[in-house]
TrEMBL record:
Textual note on the cofactor: Binds 1 FAD per subunit.
Annotated compartments: Cytoplasm
Name of the protein in its database record: Dihydrolipoyl dehydrogenase
InterPro entries to which the protein is assigned, alphabetical: Class-I_Pyr_Nuc-Dis_Oxidored, FAD/NAD-bd_sf, FAD/NAD-binding_dom, FAD/NAD-linked_Rdtase_dimer_sf, Lipoamide_DH, Pyr_nuc-diS_OxRdtase, Pyr_nucl-diS_OxRdtase_dimer
Organism, scientific name: Duganella zoogloeoides
Cofactor: FAD
Length: 476
């Protein structure tokens, strides 16, 4: 007789493991099945985010930033460094250690919350019976379990370019980009999105000559235009060679290099040679091996699992969250959906507000935003007011030695309700949280302008940008 559970979560990424824990907190018997494994073949829960995404990339971004500061910025602080050398092996080892700490942390949380963990791949084994859906687990120990409710959180995979499949040695996805064993002299990056810019920044800091090829004619099209232009200027000054409006042609792999034929924005034919090539052109939903056909699970025209606003699929008792469904492919979005679904199963009113989900690019300077951009407000015909404040005029930023960027507020011209906040600058990923809270409670720009902010702090730039909505900044 198979083991029976109230809720089975397929996938232990941010959406999956959080959904499992919340369901267990609500009193359900819960199992979570995940196939990720470490180099020793053991379980490595956490999904793409923990293993080859958010966590290891931030570890390398931090390490590479330390290296760049030691080589360039420390001298201004009166710290002289001689004999600076890169120990890439140790840097990668530290990154792997950070990943393992997160893997182990999730396994601990499962144990603490009495979530049964199965290491393997789960697939629907047939239609639901009296006891629920039979799920076949293939892994170190093959078995079948039964679930009254199923939450699918199988995440996404890196999108490949036809004719340039990933080998993770010369042509790299995010997985290979995080594990290059020697700093490439020339690194190519196709795609100027979050992954491309973050990985390009890491290897530029460590010594690579980095060229970024982007198909769109504008830089960071989803970002507020004013912020994106500032970012392009700053990244170019740092040494990233950003080429927009590129049409990628043939990609040819040699023994130790990759050549990329492309047409630039002027229509000129160019062939560039790189030691390594990172392809970061988006991600596709991962439904491989799920057995969707076995039970008639509906997918949409783009291959995502079709869900309604509550994350319900077309099958009773089957839900889906995170990268495998519509909406932004963000770990924190997946977490919020996971919590909401667990609460809906319990008869509660779980809620996810897509309008207040923050976005972050962890470059230096960081870029973070929430709400609508200025170009979106113009396109929608919304009357608005804008206010900006530069970090150049912020005392804490001066003390840090990082005065690049700004904070920008957008508010309704009539009601003063905050419609969007956009930040490029130091610690933008932390500063954006105040804006998320404010927008969730439908605060006005004046609300932020009248709140006392600690001095000296970077957050004062947020207050000043809110003051700038009414043209009454105090320090600029």
């Amino acid at each position: 007789m198979s083991k029976q559970f109230d809720v089975v979560v397929i996938g232990a990424g941010p959406g999956g493991y959080i959904a499992a824990i919340r369901a267990a907190q609500l009193g359900f018997s819960v199992a979570c099945v995940d196939a990720w494994e470490n180099e020793k073949g053991g379980p490595a829960p956490g999904g793409t985010c923990t293993n080859v995404g958010c966590i290891p990339s931030k570890a390398l971004l931090q390490s590479s930033e330390h290296f760049e500061h030691a080589g360039h910025a420390f001298k201004e602080h009166g710290i002289d460094v001689s004999g600076l050398a890169l120990n890439l092996g140790q840097m990668l080892k530290r990154k792997d250690g950070v990943v393992k700490q997160n893997n182990d942390g999730i396994l601990y949380l499962f144990k603490k919350n009495k979530v049964t963990f199965f290491h393997g791949r789960a697939a629907f084994a047939g239609a639901a019976g009296a006891d629920g859906y039979p799920l076949a687990i293939t892994g170190p120990a093959n078995e079948t379990i039964t679930a009254k409710q199923v939450i699918i959180a199988t995440g996404s995979n890196a999108r490949q370019l036809p004719g340039a499949e990933f080998d993770e040695k010369l042509i790299l996805s995010n997985t290979g980009a995080l594990a290059i064993e020697g700093v490439p002299a020339k690194l190519g990056v196709i795609g100027a999105g979050v992954i491309g810019l973050e990985m390009g920044s890491v290897w530029r800091r460590l010594g690579s000559d980095v060229t970024v090829l982007e198909g769109l004619p504008v830089f960071l099209g989803a970002v507020d235009e004013q912020i994106a232009k500032e970012a392009n200027k700053l990244f170019t000054k740092q040494g990233l060679k950003i080429n927009l409006g590129c049409k990628i042609g043939t990609i040819t792999k040699g023994d130790n290099s990759v050549s990329v034929a492309y047409e630039n924005a002027k229509g000129e034919a160019i062939t560039a040679e790189f030691d390594k090539l990172i392809i970061s052109i988006g991600r596709t939903p991962n439904t491989n091996g799920l057995g969707a056909d076995q039970v008639g699970l509906a997918l949409d025209e783009r291959g995502f699992i079709a869900v309604d606003d509550d994350c319900k699929t077309n099958l009773p008792g089957v839900w889906a969250v995170g990268d495998v469904v519509r909406g932004p492919m963000l770990a924190h979005k997946a977490e919020e959906e996971g919590v909401a679904v667990a609460e809906r199963i319990a008869g509660q009113h779980g809620h996810t507000n897509f309008n207040t989900i923050p976005w972050v690019i962890y470059t230096s300077p960081e870029i973070a935003w929430v709400g609508r951009t200025e170009q979106q407000l113009k396109a929608d015909g919304v009357a608005y007011k804008a206010g900006t404040f530069p970090f150049l005029a912020n005392g804490r930023a001066r003390a840090l030695g990082d005065t690049s960027g700004m904070v920008k507020f957008l508010a309704d011209a009539t009601t003063d309700e905050i419609l969007g906040v956009h930040i490029i600058g130091p610690m933008a990923s932390e500063l954006i949280s105040e804006a998320v809270v404010a927008m969730e409670f439908k605060a006005s720009a004046e609300d932020i302008a009248r709140i006392c902010h600690a001095h000296p702090s970077l957050s004062e730039a947020t207050k000043e940008a809110a003051l700038a909505i009414d043209k009454r900044t105090l320090n600029f």
